[in-house]
Each structure stands twice: as C-alpha cells, then as structure tokens.
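Sequence and fold:
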Amino acid sequence: MILKSEIGTEELKIKKHVDTFSKDKIFNEDNAYRITKRLSFPRLIGSTGEKKALEIVLDEFKKAGYNQIYRDRFKTSFFNLIVLRYAFIPMGICLVLLVLSFFINYWLALGLFLSNLYLAKKVLNLATTDKIHLLKNKEKNYETENIYTKLKSKKSKVKVVLMAHWDSKSQTFPSSIRIFLFLIAGIGFFAILFLSLILIIIQLIFPFDSIILNNIMLYCSVIITIISNFNYFNKTKNKSPGAYDNAAAVGIVIELARYYKITPLDNIDLIFLCTSSEELNLGGAKHFIQKYKNEFDRNSTYFINLDLIGGNEIIRLITSFGIPRKVSSRKLNKLFLNSANELKIKIKDIYLPTGAWSDYMPIVQEGFEACWLGSQPGLKFVHTKHDDMSIVSKEGIKNIIHLCVKVINELNS
C-alpha cells in the first residue's frame, strides 16, 4: 500500500521542515533525537502504543520529504517467546536423565544423547528459521506492518538497506540477565552433551569404573538446569519506553532518509526500512527478506541494521553470532571498523553466541551482506522501564550518523 502526500499545503509544510536545517550541517542529530523522544513510549505488538508508533513513523517519513511510503502488512505471534520460556524445562529434564542413564546402561545413554541433540536443534532453529510461527488460536495472532521508503540513484550500481525495528517490549529480567541465563544454558548444555558423548564412546569400547565422574556430571547438569530454568520467570510485558531499544535507531534511519533526500547518491539506491515484530520473532526482517530477496543481488546489496543505539560510549559492531559461530559481512565489518578509526570514534567488534537476537540475522541466513551496529551503555536497561531518554544522547546519535554516512560514501565511491 502506498501513501501519497496531499499536494499544496502539505508539500509546503514538508519543505519548510526540511529547510529548517542549515546547509553547513546538512545531517542533524537534533532531528533524530526529536524523533527518538517522540517514539519513546511502550509499543508492544498488539497494544495501543503499537498503533500510535506506526502513525508517528509514517508521519516522520512524510516530514522527511517522501511522497511514497510503503506499508507492508504481515501476521505475527508470541509463539517464539512462549516456547523460549518453557523450552528449558524439558531440556533440563532430558539432560539430567541423560547423565542418570550413565548409572544404568551406556546404550540407553546413547539414545538419550541423540534425543537431547534433537531437542537442542529444535530450540536453536527458532532463531534461524525463516518462518514466522503462528499460534493455533487465531485470535492470539496479530497483524502488523513494516514501513519503508526508497531513494533511487542515477546509476543504481549498489543497494543499501538501512533498517531499524520500531516495536518494543519489556521483560521481567533485563537483557543482561537473560543473556547470562542463555549462555549458561547453551554452553553448559552442549558441554555436558560433548563430554557425555566422549564418555559413552569410551565406556562402550573400554569399560571402566566412572562412578565419581558420573556424579560430577550429574551435579553439573542439575546446576545448569536450575539456572537455565529461571528463564521461565522472564515474562513479556509492555512497560519499556524503548528509547535505546529501539526508538533512537528509528530516528537515525529517518534522519538519514531526510539527509539523502537532499543529497542523493550517484551509485547507491537506498531503502529506509522500519521493521515490526523484531521483539517477538524477528518477524519484520523475516517477512521482508523472504518477500523481496529475489529483487536484490547478493553481490551488490548491503544491509545496515541499527539496534540498541544512542549511548554516548563505545559503539559495538556485532561481527559474528550463533553456535556454531557465523560471520555476518567481512566487507561491511571492515568498512565500519576502518571508518570509525578514521573518524576517531571508539568501536569494538563483538561475537554474540546466544541470548540476544536482531533483525540482521535472517538477512545473513539468506546469504546477504549485513552488519549490526549497537552502542553502550549496555544491556542492563534493555527491556526494562529504565530504557528511557536518560540513556540516549545526541552525541551517541551523531556518532552513528557520521559513521553510517562515511561507510555509505565509501560504498558509493
């Protein structure tokens, strides 16, 4: 669906808004900060805040000077969040049963090992699948939408998609604790599985008395199970203003859209994409890439994902993620690291094993060049009521804008 701005008065308003920025400072962190502040309120999918946020994003794209704004609707649900709350309970039980089987029979242990491996794969697939799982009860599914606009260049040699999600959520635990729980669960689970496989193979070939080792592994599996099952209490709510996650990123994407509307590029077609349902299942990114992937050349399309943006401390570039480890885009990662050094902006590359997800992951899974830019102060405020404007700074916003413009200019040349 395409929205068309009214001719006349509306266009004059847009032109007046654009002209308020001085020519010597053609991109403006104040505008991005203003949009961030305007969007900083709870906006979980299915809430009244979601509808309000949708209208704000549409309005800001119009103010940025765009006549065509695309509204791409899709269905989503809380399926992933529900499964992740309960998944560690059967995983923990199966892990303890596996170790207990060492005291009975190692052929039984081998069977339980394969069952644990299958269960772990099913849980990991939630983060890597290209599907949006819907609930059987249709009344508990929601319709939401991605919002984006396009800016074509003269030569159209390259496409760059600047993306940020506009939905938010709160949870019982801040993201720092959630990541800790997932790391303990993930690393501990696979460590026990790996050691179990070694022990099973040795026992089946060269049996020996392993009662002490069996007891140690049993105690470890029980501890891992108890810690990981705290995730059951991590309920999803709608209490976070979501300034840092992820209103500031949306503000930056719209400000960059305004900036490039005034100063279009010769070689790069730009898409400014604000996705929905990131907090539930990366749904907006999954829907977008599955619908449009055949329109993009994997050798000349780059996705820049902004998520957890606005802190005035060090910028974090997530260069790889997952278990096993998957590198996102060596080219983009190198460009951002080098550009940050040239601009004297502090940056750090990070590997994220598990516990946090972002919209660039479905893009990388489809074989596209993509990167994820974030920033400190860190995860202790994310998904809490303290994720407000107090942790977002104009300096942090300005650094991200400068860095994105620098990298896009490098690609353009």
